[in-house]
């Protein structure tokens, strides 16, 4: 990935990824919601050696801007060969259970806005017969659990969408990489008590880029989550529904 | 409440933490006092805030810009010196002043106005800080430089994190022609020899410091090795660049707390003896990468854990030349007599280049730094005695390395302390600051007392 669009560039995992890409001398088009924070990430990337950095502050929940945003990124960098989609919200399970509005907000940001962005991007990448699309999903999408199934559903739907996209774009030489981090120590999880399973954003970013470089399909980062999720997925539903997970 | 330790692991206090991420954000609202915290490389209680909140600045780690033509770097306060070296060194720019570890933040380097092996020709870190932003609890943001808000600039450099939060700073780096240092090691028989050789060395060496054997007594007090060096010229003076000369420190880690019986008089003296005799009494020259030259201890990650759970106390003082010989002899002898070995002791000289910081520690004279394993009362009394000797000699003790100095000493060492107090942010405080001002307690000391923080040691403190 030499010319990369990063969606949700101010998220902790994206920031760490941007640093690694900048150190490699990539050109970057960074998108985030908060203009001041985005500016901080942009300047940091430029100082750390990015060949070129452009940025745009937009709220990705505004789907009407997506076509133009993608167009703008291609123009600014003179083409794109990589996308890192990193925006998302954790939501609040209790609120989502109480009101559809809260559920809808999670689904819109995590699933629908991703699809809305990946649609024009996929078409362009398919046409140019090149590119790597990296999407940050979550282990939570592997199985619904009472503690966060709305978030999990948004990521699960995203996973299925990406499977289809991968299937479609394989013949156009476009890689679609689904990254499934476990617990990551970021501002998004600042309120949670930490344990040994929490990985740093830097570690996740390194795993993400390794997967992108080798054009993997689905990766768990850190790798231990592949095992954990294998176990969780293989519990029979009749048992699972009685568990407090 | 989370227990975050200082580098010396003494004292242990309970405090909350709050991570900062964005430099444009307002200070978080918390009850009680706050104190910025960098990488916790200060030894005693000056980077702790028992019963209060530490504002963790490690998330403020973004660069703002770097001009490879002028060597001016602008970055957030949580950027470490290591990150600056990685950015600058390959482009021919080095830190103008660096402490003995690169794992300190720019904010921490400013707040303690750190010094390096080149104080005699470069002064302190603060001199190279061109500008910074200071955020106060009233929401105000000030750009501070020698011209803009010069009073805040002077109060904050060396200001122990008490004047507000530094969000970003602009630092002038210095050019180097390669990353290698031409280093010379000179054996020293005693303190008198140190005083002569160190002064001589200042004339044509940018970097000097001496390691001393703290257990040597009598005529041998101050026995040790003096290291001096300069960045190598581009051609290395014809010296071949042997592979072994280019190595960085090996990455070892201390995996766990070592039981404290590992460090006793016997092991320390064996170590010191070996170290000294490795040299065979002759000066030795070699070319070395900057990493092992400036940061030998960084090669052993977490070396502070060799002192075990109870941690250790560091003591660093500076005494004027006029009293240096007697005072240092007294200090070295007291520590060796007390049966409390100091594992690592370092002597060096400070020049008289003034710092802009009001509370800057370095001043012309000789500085000595020692580590003492924490053996409770005995150790505290020794360090307090050393504080008294320093004060009587007209010197000063370094707050960044202190856990025992008395409030009277602090007032004597830092004559501008009253003026400084007017610039302390009302919402900011530290365990050190409350220890120095036991009479006017802005925040409760209860939790600190309960958790074993140092008891006030002076008569004044009892009021
Ligand atoms: C192995 C070793 C060698 C050392 N050698 C030297 C040496 O040669 N010379 C020397 O001078 N020191 C030396 N030190 C001490 C060290 O350089 C200082 O204590 C330094 O200030 C630590 O920086 P830090 O980022 O870890 O800050 P901390 O220790 O976490 O904090 C130090 C102070 O800075 C304040 N602070 C931190 N960030 C900010 C901010 N953003 N805004 C405002 N205030 C802030 C804190 O409140 C605190 O008062 C050494 C330490 C070690 C462990």
TrEMBL record, chain A:
Name recorded for this polypeptide: SDR family oxidoreductase
Source superkingdom: Bacteria
Domain Ketoreductase residue range list: 2-187
InterPro entries for this protein: KR_dom, NAD(P)-bd_dom_sf, Sc_DH/Rdtase_CS, SDR_fam
Similarity field: Belongs to the short-chain dehydrogenases/reductases (SDR) family.
Keywords, alphabetical: Oxidoreductase
Pfam families: adh_short (PF00106)
Keyword field contains Transcription: no
PANTHER family tied to this protein: DEHYDROGENASE/REDUCTASE SDR FAMILY MEMBER 7B, DEHYDROGENASE_REDUCTASE SDR FAMILY MEMBER 7B
SMART domains, per database record: PKS_KR
Gene3D superfamilies, per database record: NAD(P)-binding Rossmann-like Domain
TrEMBL record, chain B:
SUPFAM superfamilies in the record: FAD-binding/transporter-associated domain-like (SSF56176)
Pfam families: FAD_binding_4
Domain FAD-binding PCMH-type: 1-176
Superkingdom field: Bacteria
InterPro entries: FAD-bd_PCMH, FAD-bd_PCMH-like_sf, FAD-bd_PCMH_sub2, FAD_lactone_oxidase-like, Oxid_FAD_bind_N
Full protein name: FAD-binding oxidoreductase
Protein's organism: Myxococcus landrumensis
UniProt lineage: Bacteria, Pseudomonadati, Myxococcota, Myxococcia, Myxococcales
């Amino acid at each position: 990935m030499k010319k990369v669009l990063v969606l949700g560039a101010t998220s902790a995992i994206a920031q760490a990824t941007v640093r690694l890409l900048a150190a490699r001398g990539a050109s970057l088009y960074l998108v985030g919601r908060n203009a001041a924070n985005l500016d901080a990430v942009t300047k940091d990337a430029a100082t750390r050696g990015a060949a070129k950095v452009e940025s745009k502050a937009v709220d990705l929940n505004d789907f009407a801007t997506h076509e133009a945003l993608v167009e703008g990124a291609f123009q600014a960098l003179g083409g794109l060969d990589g996308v890192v989609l990193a925006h998302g919200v954790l939501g609040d399970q209790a609120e989502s259970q109480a009101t559809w509005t809260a559920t809808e907000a999670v689904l819109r940001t995590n699933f629908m806005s991703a699809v809305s962005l990946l649609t024009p991007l996929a078409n362009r990448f398919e046409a140019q017969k090149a590119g790597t699309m990296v999407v940050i999903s979550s282990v939570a999408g592997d199985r619904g659990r009472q503690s966060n199934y709305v978030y999990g559903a948004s990521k699960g739907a995203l996973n299925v969408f990406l499977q289809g996209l991968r299937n479609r774009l394989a013949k156009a030489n476009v890689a679609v990489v689904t990254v499934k981090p476990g617990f990551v120590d970021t501002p998004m999880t600042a309120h949670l008590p930490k344990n040994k399973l929490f990985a740093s954003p830097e570690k996740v970013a390194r795993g993400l880029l390794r997967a992108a470089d080798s054009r993997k399909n689905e990766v768990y980062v850190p790798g231990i989550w592949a095992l954990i999720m294998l176990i969780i997925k293989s519990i029979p539903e009749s048992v699972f529904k009685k568990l407090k997970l | 409440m989370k227990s975050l330790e200082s580098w010396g692991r003494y004292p242990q206090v309970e405090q909350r933490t709050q991570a900062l991420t964005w430099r444009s954000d307002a200070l978080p609202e918390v009850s009680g006092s706050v104190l910025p915290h960098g990488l916790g490389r200060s030894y005693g209680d000056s980077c702790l805030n028992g019963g209060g909140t530490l504002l963790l600045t490690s998330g403020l780690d973004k660069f703002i810009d770097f001009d490879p033509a002028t060597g001016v770097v602008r970055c957030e306060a949580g950027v470490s010196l290591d990150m600056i070296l990685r950015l600058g060194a390959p482009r021919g720019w080095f830190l103008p002043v660096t402490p003995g570890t690169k794992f300190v933040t720019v904010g921490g380097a400013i707040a303690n106005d750190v010094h390096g092996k080149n104080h005699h020709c470069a002064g302190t870190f603060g001199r190279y800080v061109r500008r910074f932003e200071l955020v106060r609890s009233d929401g105000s943001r000030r750009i501070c430089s020698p011209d803009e808000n010069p009073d805040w600039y002077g109060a904050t450099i060396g200001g122990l994190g008490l004047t507000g939060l530094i969000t970003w700073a602009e630092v002038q780096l210095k050019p180097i022609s390669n990353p290698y240092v031409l280093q010379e090691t000179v054996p020293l028989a005693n303190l008198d020899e140190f005083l002569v050789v160190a002064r001589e060395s200042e004339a044509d060496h940018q970097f000097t410091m001496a390691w001393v054997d703290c257990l040597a007594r009598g005529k041998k007090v101050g026995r040790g090795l003096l290291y001096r060096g300069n960045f190598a010229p581009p051609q290395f003076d014809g010296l071949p660049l042997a592979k072994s000369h280019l190595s960085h420190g090996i990455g070892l880690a201390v995996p766990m707390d070592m039981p404290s019986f590992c460090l006793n008089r016997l092991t320390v003296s064996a170590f010191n003896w070996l170290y000294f005799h490795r040299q065979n009494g002759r000066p030795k020259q070699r070319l070395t990468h900057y990493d092992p030259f400036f940061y030998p201890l960084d090669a052993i990650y977490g070396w502070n854990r060799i002192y075990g759970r109870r941690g250790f106390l560091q003591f660093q003082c500076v005494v004027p030349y006029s009293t240096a010989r007697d005072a240092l002899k007294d200090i070295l002898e007291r520590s060796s007599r007390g049966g409390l070995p100091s594992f690592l002791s370092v002597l060096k000289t400070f020049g008289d280049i003034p710092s802009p910081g009001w509370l800057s520690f370095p001043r012309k004279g000789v500085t000595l730094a020692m580590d003492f394993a924490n053996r409770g009362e005995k150790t505290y009394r020794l360090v307090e005695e050393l504080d008294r000797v320093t004060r009587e000699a007209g010197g000063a003790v370094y707050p960044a390395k202190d856990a025992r100095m008395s409030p009277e000493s602090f007032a004597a060492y830092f004559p501008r302390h009253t003026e400084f107090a007017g610039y302390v942010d009302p919402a900011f405080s530290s365990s050190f600051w409350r220890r120095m001002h036991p009479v006017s307690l802005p925040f409760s000391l209860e939790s600190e007392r309960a958790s074993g923080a140092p008891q006030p040691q002076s008569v004044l403190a009892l009021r």
